[in-house]
Amino acid sequence: MKGLFAKLAIGVAALAFVTAAQAGETLDRVMGKKAMVVATNSGWPPQSYLDDSNELVGFDIDVSKEIAKRLGVEVSFETPDWATLTGGRWQGRYDLGVGSVTPTKARAQVIDFAGIYYFSPYVYVLHKDSQAKSVADLNGKIIGVETATTSEDFIRRQLEIDAPGLPPIEYKIEPGEIRTFADSMLPFDDLRLGDGVRLDAVIAPEQTALNAVKNGYPLRVLEGEYAFREPLVVIAEKVDPDWTKKVGSIIDEMKKDGTLATLTTKWYGKDYSAD
What transmembrane ranges does the database entry give (predicted)? Predict the structure, then answer.
């Protein structure tokens, strides 16, 4: 019996060691290599996009670099498709996701939310020649959204944001048709062709819409009518609570010391970091 107890004790100790190793898997890897791989987007200005020199730039890129700086590590970027970025089960390919991801109940099942780093109002975007003056004017119209995003969830009345203290979502629009697009800018490309030519409106983040207008798209935002306001989170694979907590503490520091206010103002023209 003594030998059996000894074997059991060794087995329990071994299991505890394995569990501990798994608990710090990502944190140990990043700090050991002094390098972090961030999953993000490559075609979502001004959040993250390729500039004229084919370099990734944007708000999410600056946030990623600041997190890496505070960790004392180098950072590199990968640009998987959106479903892969938000689907978890990365198998160590990425250490962090910084892609302006909304915390939804479905995503909470497969990825960890390290912390909210800014907020984004979603707006109704129209062609500049549109006669629409309110959301009611868009009932029965053709609405464009990026697929597999909260814009699509919203227009399909399936949006479930997983963050405390947010007011309930109000659905004020009954679309005649929903058209989905694989990229955040593609709906704007259709809308710019003319009012009602392919689309009557697009639902998108205010930051993306204003950036499109700034870059010469003949569009306007429907004034005084937000679709909804969402928090955006940095995400991690669901394998290492210590890593998620560590990154979360850095995000809190960046919010408290004004870094996130500075970066949102730099890229969006206003502070979107306030709770």
Answer: none
